[in-house]
Amino acid sequence: MSRSSPCLWMPLPQADASPCDRYKHACCTHQGDVYVLGGRSTHCLRDFWSYSVVRNEWTQLPCKGEAAPEELEEHSMVAHEGFMYVFGGTLDCAYTGWRCPLWVFDLGKHKWVHWQGKKSASWMPTNRKSHSAVVFGSSMFVYGGYIDMRGSSQEFWRLDFDSMCWSLLGGGQQAPGGPGPGPRHSHCAVAHQETMYLYGGLRGLREQRDFWSWNSGSRSWSCLKTTSGPSRLVGHAAVAYRDGLLLYGGGQSLNAPLNSLWRYSFRSQSWERLALLPGSTNPPARIHHCCLGLGPSYQPLTPTTTGGSLLPRLETKPRPFKNKCFPSPLSYLGTTSEGAIELETFEKTENGLTVPCAVREGKKSCLTFENQAFCNRWSCEEVDGDGEGEDLADMMEDVIVQNLPDLLLLLGGKPLGQQAALSVWQMTLTDP
Questions:
Q1: Are 229 and 209 in contact (CB under 8 A)?
Q2: Using one digit for the tens of pLDDT, what is the confidence trace for 192-221?
Q3: Residue 1 in domain
Q4: Are residues 159 and 275 in the same domain?
Q5: Residue 232's Cα: distance from chain center in Å?
Q6: Contact of 99 with 90, CB cutoff 8 Å
Q7: DSSP, residue by residue, 51-89
Q8: Tens digits of per-residue pLDDT, 121-173?
Q9: Distance of CA 378 to CAs 91, 105, 365, 374, 395, Å?
Q10: Domain holding 220: CATH number?
Q11: Number of domains in the chain
């Protein structure tokens, strides 16, 4: 009997000083912050934003200069060791074989920087849209995409971050593709341990519902056969979650977006459509949106020095602070959001991870954190008047970022929201 994991959805209204609503944009996370670049509203956009989940605050970042990208849509963006890597999505064919559509943003200096690879390298990907990009170790892997005049591509590229050199792994004339997904765009892909998982998308003009895995060790593709799961999808989004992945939205066309949330288990190799927790707000139907995971369950698994086990990279020592959490106003719980539940510290679980201590009282915990002025919710009892309060506040913010609760964020997508600000929703899973 499969376990049920109801989900709790909530909209997060945004302030005026926030990016406009959009679709076909790119998002990623770095150290608890969310980054949004470009996309399309009524026109193609050239703006770059960061969002502090802790402070519930948007900051517009520079997106001008010789090293910065122009207007982009259907591009990709990944983060690695303090840098953001943006690829593809340009509006015309100006980027041909002699110039690669890759841009690098220094997160520490908040500036776009010129990237340097081997000038003699002849293998570099040309501009494309609706491709996928994931990170393994110190490399970015890019699959497929739509290339003007050529249509759907099956090229599979690797960018080594250390040397900034590209290599073609499959799908091109120099490196023909073997068994695999074939030409593909508007699909989704996630990385988990040593494997990339790819679902659906367009193969030419036909929507797909096939599911593939690529092992970075053997460099081989496998088609994953399942008896159930999502339908044919394009413009959907997925994130790795614990020992599986979560896939949201998409559809067979822009006019038929879905609001289904699916969970795939790597262990059982099966799909489960997740039901709403009674009383939860219905999430919006979206296509060409972004999904991002925050919290320990969404962190990539990395080898540790103790027995080779794989655990999320987190602090193992409980760090006390106070913040406010509240349950959704569910009638069967007999409470409303006005009755805030205060979480005062973190506890260590059996597997050595630090998680918030919740007030359970025999009831299933379905808490979501109140992210309005979140960084001002803690208590600082041992602060004198010598300016140590600011240092302590910075330290506490770092603690909060390291111990964020598990949240899935849904940003933007088609159709655009009724408000001008970017549509942001959060989802919390209530695992049994």
A1: yes
A2: 999 999 999 999 889 999 999 999 989 999
A3: no
A4: yes
A5: 21
A6: no
A7: EETTTTEEEEEP--STTS--S-SS-EEEEETTEEEEE--
A8: 568 899 999 999 999 999 999 999 999 888 999 999 999 999 999 999 998 65
A9: 46, 32, 21, 8, 12
A10: 2.120.10.80
A11: 2
